[in-house]
Amino acid sequence: MDAREQAEGEKRVRDLLVEPLLRRGLVKPGAMTKAQFEEMLADLAKRLAYMSAPNLAALEEMAAAQPGGKDRDRFPIANAILKAAAQIQPPADDASPLIRAVFAHAVGRQALAEGWAPELLDDLRHNRRWPRSYALGQIRQAAGEALRRHAHLAGAGPGQLSPAEAAWLRDREARLAHCRSIADLAGVSA
C-alpha cells in the first residue's frame, strides 16, 4: 500500500466507521483524555486503511451494536474494533506487523532457508501470536511431507510430472515466493 492508498484508506475509515459511530452519539471512553481518544481514532484509521468500504460498513454496524461503558454509550476501544475487523477482513500478510516481524527475525529466515515458510505463515495467520519453540517444532513437523514432496517434484525432469503434480509444485513455489516477498518488505534478504 503506497502513501496515496494509505491516505485514501484512512479517510474511508473516518467516513465509514468513525464518523457514523460518533453521529450515533457514542462518546469517548471515560478513562481516556480527549487527546488519547483522538490518538486512538488516528491509529485506528491507520491500522484499518486496508479495509474495503462494504467491510467498514459491516464493522460500523457491529461496533454500534456493542458500545462500551456501563450506559452503553461509549465508543468501543480500538482493540475490540481491531479484533472484529480481523474477523470481517483480515489484513493482508504484508500489512501485518506481526507477520513482517516474524519473517524479519531469525525464525522467519530459517523457515525461508529450510522451505517451511508457507506453514509458518499459515500458523501466523491462524493464531496471530509469536510462535514459540514447541509451536515451531509442530510447524516443522507438519511441513515435513510438503518438503519431501517439493524436493521430489522439483527434481523431476521436464514432462515427468502429471498435471496435478505440476500444479501443486507451481502453487508451492508461489507460496514460497510470497513468503520471500514478505521478508523483503521487512528488510530481510533471503
Layout of secondary structure:
Blueprint (H helix, E strand, L loop, with lengths): L2 H21 L10 H14 L5 H13 L12 H11 L8 H8 L1 H9 L2 H11 L5 H22 L8 H23 L5
Description:
This protein is an all-alpha fold and 190 residues long. The protein contains nine helices and no strands. Helix 3 (53-65) crosses helix 4 and helix 5 (97-104) crosses helix 6 (106-114). The radius of gyration is 21 Å and the shape is elongated. The mean pLDDT is 91.
Number of helices: 9
Let me know the average pLDDT: 91
N- and C-termini, Cα separation: 22 Å
Judged by helices, strands and strand pairing, the structural class is: mainly alpha
Amount of beta strand: under 5%
- The helix content is 55-70%
Which spans have pLDDT < 50 for at least 5 consecutive residues? none
Sum up the overall morphology in one term. Answer: elongated
Number of strands: 0
The run of helices and strands is: HHHHHHHHH
Major sheet size, sense and barrel closure: none
Radius of gyration: 21 Å
